[in-house]
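Recap quiz, item 2
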Amino acid sequence: VTRSIVAGCAHSLVDVVATALIESWVDFAGTPCGILAPLLDGLTERGASLTYIHREDIAVAFAVGAHLAGGHLCVFMQNSGFGQSVNVLASLVEPCRAPVPMIVSMRGTGADTTPENRGMGRTTIPVLQALGIPFRRLSAEHPTADITWLSSQTRNTGGPAAVLVEPEYFGWSSQREHQTMSF
Amino acid sequence: VNIRPCRFDVLKTVIRLTPHTPVVFTTGYTSREAHHLADRPNHFYMTGSMGMAGAIGMGIAASTDTPVVVVDGDGALLMNLSMLLLAQQYPTRGFVHLVLDNGTFDSTGGQPTASPGIDLVTLARATGYAQAAQLTTLAQLRDEVSAHLARPAGPYLAHIPIDPTTTPPGPRIAITPADNLRRLSAWISSQPTCRPR
């Protein structure tokens, strides 16, 4: 019973968040993550234009180009890929004040105790702060407002911003990861 | 004797051919020399984020119907080869990727790159570019770029071996990155040929 309730909650959150994303952006690009997998499936099921790019920093630079040409693109990544993207954020996005919205899943925090992810789990928020990139965590209480914040934050300030997704948000757990081999 | 064209002449040729085309110039001396030659509102000088010129260019190309020219370097492209995969993920018609190959990291003191052992034309074809070629003269460069801008037919990569002799690149870029982004964004939106998809 507990499991189906959890699954039901996660399902409705996918519905709400995917809908809010599609209302804010036309295209999505980034690198997949097990935490975000239900959301990425939800976007695909709803017919969103979504492309998996093999390196997160390439997706970020691509988003700068899309913005230059009037596109509306949101980038998604795991925080390990945020680590990969630090230089492109520091040396391209921030100095250009390019409006790049990012959905970043937070491996190495909360329910995720895997040793290989702890470093980026500890590092992501301090690096966002050091780069001056505004961020907030995706809440279960008002997810639509969080996504709307990401959209208005990037468009109004003309700079990057991030919404952080905790491991449990869409029902991820390390046990489930063992069963499904999702990363 | 096959004398390689120098970077200055290649950039001059490219700039002459692209008054109506967004052009992204890679980090370092390439951006500085292009800016020194002619600073135009359709130019983007990527002063940081080495290796990302192609990704920015593809982002523009995928969002409009206009051709886009990227002026890359061997050191920068080899730093980020996975960028080549965008050609099959976004098979845009007008993506013209010019790779100037002097075999060195010129801007950091002329250290050698791995390019002499790498076949960039074959790599481009293998990763999804519709066409790829090596261009060894300025006349070839002029003819090929003109043809691909006039009749875009899918992502195109040209490998252009250039003279490795270091020449003064001109002063650092005067326009700030933020002003450069705003200026190109405004220029693209003002162009009837650059309408968003």
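The two ends of chain B are 47 Å apart (CA to CA).
The mean pLDDT of chain B is 95.
End of item.
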